[in-house]
């Protein structure tokens, strides 16, 4: 560590265990190992220096953005060095003509979105954490979000990357253009690789035209399945919502207890749907009709941006509200759209069978559910009945043709189910790819694959 | 070969050189080597058998769809076996609820699109060749097309693949869901890999809602740069066209000579713009205005689907029309959107300086140009002045922040410029990845990377 400290500019390395501990964990309950220290990188050169040193001394490195991950990918292990990119916060270029931005990895997601909006553009990917998470972290996990249903995930906005490899070499991938097929898609390989293949030090991302107007529908239902049926109807009718979010009663209750949103006693589910199309009012009215036709007890439509922001703001509180109830195991299954009602029933059944509190929100338009398993504070890890219920939920998602993780990633949390989805050939290939980039296995070892 | 013939069902292998020759080339001028034979695969098992045999005997295999490629990726080499997938033409599943189809690789692209439209959906990627090219070939090259400007390239519609690896093992990648981040993005790695990593035997692709209406603008300009300026204005105004195509006079003249479209003597360029938004008429009217404001000599707007199909049909004739003029070297540079006018000037300058006929069409909304270098029939390859002009065009594209290939791929044709774009680290990594999948280098050796 003395050598690393000497090789970096003054003040880049933290070694006081009281301070480093907060850099060693993400948003999960997982307890980190004891890291040797934390590098607060401020430039690509800092990252190169750190990786060269790590290669020389075979020290595991855990790259890290803001630590808002929900799968344990940024959890430090014993004897590792945490490499935090959160101080690399420059927006290096923002070109309205090319609809492209070039950013450092520590840029807060919402900050880039705001910068783009000054030019009538937006940065589309918006994980719920987007006010605190970084672009680098979003890229490393291929983060999703609320607007995915129309604009796709982080991968769909990533054009090119600068990456520092395990041995300190610098790799450039991708391009600044809208299209390009020179060589294999290395950009796509890094996106979602959870820091196991390299450290992203710069990204060229695509911006999109910001919508001129939005119209928003909020609908309450006395049954969760009715709400899910409304989701299917909205998709089938071709309404093309720019946001289609579902919250169950447990989630709504947690938000209501905290923020007093005036929750009706009979409300079992709420749907928030938004259209940002040029005929957003008409599209929203159609979505409201479909909610009514599927048994909504209450439906409201608004063309006001302020009301829309408020409603979506309620949804963005969901995770924090649930953290008030206890410790959380946040899950992230994604099923084919048509299987959403069935998946929701399976979650309800698992909660009842194992007597576990599960609060579910869903990016419903994508078939992506977040069942949050709430358990007692103070426990080191979820009790057996929570794991049993989670196991049931995972297996049911796979049985329905779905996946273990729609947008949060595998990290450490989902490794024990990974083989159920990936199979032996894919697993072998993935480890082969890992060896090409990181033959010494020092980059976030044990995560993702 | 006897062993391979015996291992496959009767009739799967062609060895008569007169017959195999037509399977050994693509749409380029490149002369293929002498293949040992052609396998006409009808099932995954045929592919597995072929690859096991090829691994055992170290025989290079050239996977192939319909042979409509424009970069030489499907050009056979001496002593190779061509593995054609064009007989695997089943649409195995088409789910309107999930907006997903599962297809064999030999399905003709436009056939899938038509099948989807029966359910109010579409398969968005539409390379100009889409009436004759296959989904497998489109995946292998990450084909683009006219609708890319709104709906993205083939990659953006590929959810999951079944792939036979070099040694005959079967790998499944990806998923059926809209989102998913389990493991590295192997689907993305295969898309655009030009048959060098594995043979795609099944694909799960995303369908999209078919637009209810389209409005189309055709505008003629007396200067190509004016047309390019109109493109920039349309993008900057946020019109979000679903198609934005540019043709230069040489292209128009070739089409006119063939199909008599009544080309005006003063027309130097034509722009075709389309909107399929719910307010398509309004969007098209705005695009027409912007054409007028940028010096269009003639502008027509139509809401009729028949007229739209006719206009777009004219554009789709471009390549065939040019083939009537001579042999073609079809290029495919892509530049940041704002650099389109500059790139067009560079192409015109290169044509003048080297006294070469270049006919340019562009997916203008994406900054993707196809300068087609026309040269004399009967020549074995383009004469030196064509290569010199092409070299200038490539270097200028890179200097403008662009790429050598937006959608056609590297194949054999662009290999000599590859290092200019990729750099040594990316090249080494790509060869490392190739070795993970194909350690004996039998899958389409010498292509793509």
Automatic annotation (TrEMBL), chains A, B:
Pfam families: FAD-oxidase_C, FAD_binding_4. InterPro entries: FAD-bd_oxidored_4_C (IPR004113), FAD-bd_PCMH (IPR016166), FAD-bd_PCMH-like_sf (IPR036318), FAD-bd_PCMH_sub2 (IPR016169), FAD-linked_Oxase-like_C (IPR016164), FAD-linked_OxidoTrans_Type4 (IPR051914), Oxid_FAD_bind_N (IPR006094), Vanillyl_alc_oxidase_C-sub2 (IPR016171). PROSITE patterns: FAD_PCMH. Keywords: FAD, Flavoprotein, Oxidoreductase. The keyword Ligase does not apply. It comes from the Bacteria. The keyword Flavoprotein applies. SUPFAM superfamilies: FAD-binding/transporter-associated domain-like, FAD-linked oxidases, C-terminal domain. Gene3D superfamilies: 3.30.465.10, 3.30.70.2740, Vanillyl-alcohol Oxidase, Chain A, domain 4 (1.10.45.10). Residues 31-210 form the FAD-binding PCMH-type domain. Its cofactor is FAD. This is FAD-binding oxidoreductase.
